[in-house]
């Protein structure tokens, strides 16, 4: 009878330890998922802010030397944040041709409007 009681206690203690370890693993998984979610949200916010800076430079349709410098810095920040797509491509084209023309500015504004970052059609 004592042997049976010890066996039952050993099994119960082992099961309790296994459940505790499983609970820790589950808690670790939950914490890891929460951390990944927060990281993903931060990356998304950085990308949105970079896009907003790029689009803000051409919002009024005019590009001064100061606007061009701001646009160059904003495009570098957008690329560093992993932003890709039409807005960055149009901005690169505008900056790479030696001097922006009205057509290029309008194309960048249209790309910004399509990305939901302002421009003529979102006013």
Q: Which helices and strands, and how do they pair?
A:
Elements: H1 2-57, H2 65-80, H3 86-96, H4 102-114
Helix pairs in contact: 1-2, 2-3, 3-4
- Low-pLDDT segments, ≥5 res: 14-23, 119-123
Please count the beta strands (DSSP E, at least 2 residues each): 0
Helix percentage range: over 70%
Separation of the first and last Cα atoms: 84 Å
What average pLDDT do the residues reach?
A: 73
Structural class designation: mainly alpha
Q: Tell me the overall shape.
A: globular
Q: Tell me the β content.
A: under 5%
Radius of gyration: 28 Å
Provide the number of structural domains: 1
Main sheet makeup:
none
Signal peptide: 1-27
Keywords: Signal
Organism: Quadrisphaera setariae
Protein name: Secreted protein
In short:
Helix content is 78%, strand content 0%. It has helices at residues 2-57, 65-80, 86-96, 102-114.
């Amino acid at each position: 009878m004592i042997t049976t009681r010890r066996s039952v206690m050993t099994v119960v203690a082992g099961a309790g330890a296994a459940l505790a370890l499983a609970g820790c693993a589950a808690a670790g998984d939950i914490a890891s998922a929460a951390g990944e979610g927060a990281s993903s949200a931060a990356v998304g916010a950085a990308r949105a802010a970079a896009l907003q800076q790029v689009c803000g430079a051409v919002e009024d349709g005019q590009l001064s030397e100061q606007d061009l410098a701001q646009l160059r810095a904003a495009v570098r920040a957008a690329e560093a944040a992993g932003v890709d797509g039409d807005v960055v491509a149009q901005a690169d084209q505008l900056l790479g041709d030696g001097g922006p023309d009205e057509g290029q500015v309008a194309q960048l504004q249209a790309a910004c409007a399509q990305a939901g970052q302002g421009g003529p059609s979102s006013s």
